[in-house]
Amino acid sequence: MVDYQYLYDYYSNAPSLIRLVWWVSGILATAIIVLVVFLKYIRFFLRKRSQEAAKFRSEYEALLVEYLYSGDESGKLTEAQELIVEKIRNNVKKASKRKVIVSVLFNLMDEVSGEMSDAVKTFYYKTGLIHYAYERLKSQKWNVIAKGIGELRCFRIEEANAMVAPFINHPKSEVRSETHLYMVNLFLFEGLSFLNDLKEPLSEWIQIQLLETLQKFDNQEICDIRTWLKSENNSVVLFALKLAQIYNQFEVKETLMDLLSHENKTIRIKTIDVLAHLYGIEAKEMLMANFNTLSLEEQISFFKMLEKLVVPDDEPFVEAYLFHKNFEIQLLALKILKEINFDKYVVLTKPSNNNKSLAMVKAVKAI
Fold first, then answer.
1. 17, 157, 239, 304: which could join 152 in a potential S-S bond, CB 3.0 to 4.6 Å?
2. Cα angle 107, 109, 112; round to 5
């Protein structure tokens, strides 16, 4: 049996520091016990919640499939569909169940098309889920807004355009990206009108996604991109240059010529690349005349252009840069010479010839 009197006397006669240590130890021990009990409760609660969500998901997946196959050719909801909508409408009021329902609908939208896709969209309206997406757009939290826009994009809610458009220049890139994807996914080239008002940078990743979206649809009539080529937003100009190249916009050559003197070097280099693709002979002549004023990167881009647009009369120019200080330009010049005057190329690459760049010659021979 514990002698409590002994312990009490020991504690009473102990120095203040020892008594403080005892108090701290007791508090920590109590805190550990409370935390262990609390963590066990949390684990139990989460496990139970996960089981309920899985059960709920399974039930409503079956209901939604039944909803899809209960329709008829009239386009109106059948009595069976109305009953399913009514049953689920009562559950969307609870956030946890609403999250599960939206998740199931997301999966369905990926798997169905045509009339079934329209049926899912109708279900989204009828159950009132659309109103919760609208409410998200009013949130002060950027991640909530982004999710709301992404949801409206997934279910192709075109009438939300007026509510989504103000987020074009949102401070958070995630919100801007969702907004831009919403515009293009729903309205294709017409949706690119947001570029007229875009002040923030258009990231390289979102540019790729926008282009991939546009290229999914054939027989589209591209809009006039001249305004974007003249934009003060450099990222918009670069995106418009990609559009000009992908969609062969020969009619914007004149505007592209102006971009050769743009203050941004990246834009100038990309413009040379696009003009080479569009067979911009005028640009080739202008750049050739001003070659020595170009930056090294622009000179390399020009020789890549010349490789596509070279004519026999360009031989003296090409020969003048066979031994340029930059190896890539040397290599390109020799490749071009090989194409327009093979005899001179053979003489130049003879082993007995006193070449200044043997490595360059070997590289061209390997092509």
1. 157
2. 110
